[in-house]
């Protein structure tokens, strides 16, 4: 785990049940024929591909053709798992998975995807069903890993499926199947996703405010038209490979250690966590070689590259394109900045080559402001979640918790701050937004339940969302938990509150800094 940030764990947990009748469920069987009859009765153009019963504490075996999410969830509640292929109004197809627990608590949850991932997120479905929710994930209309984009070239309708249509269609049909299976519709509907999954959640509440009552988005990759090109731009800083200005991968950790040395004490406590990187006064010249061999230091040309990384992407006529990497993100640079190798660059060409249809000959040398302008004009699949007026979602009582990791390199916190500013103006919505941690995928194992040992709204963002939606109890903080070596069996290493933006957790000055009770939410400076 990167010591420069705390991770917000929000996986599964116990939630009180809502009353519902089990009569329909007891009379039905978990079979393809049963669910196909539900679809046919509702005149839905879809085919049930599989239906599988999973016993209590059992494992759902992920299908062999799954490329994106290959880990099988274990330790499940007794449930019926189905897979459905649906035809859109445009004639395209998307597939979704649905977990229907026997001890359903009357709630529905959609879990999001990551990157371009064309697959059903079975592992996060397993985490979600631990709450007692019925849980759905869609493959967004194609199959492939999180970097694969060849499916998009020349297929604008498939891109639309990925952008929003498959998520909405899968949600609508899942609710129909839930009502048919249990004999009643869900009382409350939730969404949880991180990165592209966060974008999916924002897109859903913008376009279809009636789909969900509560939405949890982590580090939303909402600005698709600029984010995907910035992924190429940052890789160009080390081009061409071997140039004097290029920073080697071996230096990334050294840079990170110097950032931590300078920035960590500035928030009032030296604890390996940079609580407010935007306010850190960092002096990169401390890394200058000054005549030494540059094995653990930087020459002047490399310092200039460092300045590029830590500054916004600004093009001709001072046109702002995308925000800079934050201090404290250096642990992720091996993937996001790379060492100038052609393979790291080529992995990021897919958006321009396939979604913008610039073809296989397009490379980083072709990237310019014109590319950004083309991307804005096309907005492939209408994927960018920039319909900032979410008053329809708010007016029907919808609740949104937005959290973002300070050490998320490709998705800087400023991206979150931009959308928060645009969407939180009084004319749009008068409600608090929360910057609360890093992500919420199942990171501690395929059978981990929630924040182990802390199944309550104070520690778990999903339970906090439920309390807000159903009881009107808005969270004033969420306690983040870090386990020793990310191993639950090793016990809790430390906890502290994650606070509503722009507040930060501030140490009281007394007590154990590893205990949440020793902190309070306040402005640091």
From TrEMBL:
Domain of life: Eukaryota
Known EC number: 3.1.1.-
Broadest EC class assigned to this enzyme: hydrolase
Keywords: Calcium, Disulfide bond, Hydrolase, Metal-binding, Serine esterase, Signal
Residues of the signal peptide: 1-24
InterPro entries found in the cross-reference section: AB_hydrolase_fold, Tannase/feruloyl_esterase
Molecular-function annotations in GO: feruloyl esterase activity; metal ion binding
Family: Belongs to the tannase family.
Name this polypeptide is given: Carboxylic ester hydrolase
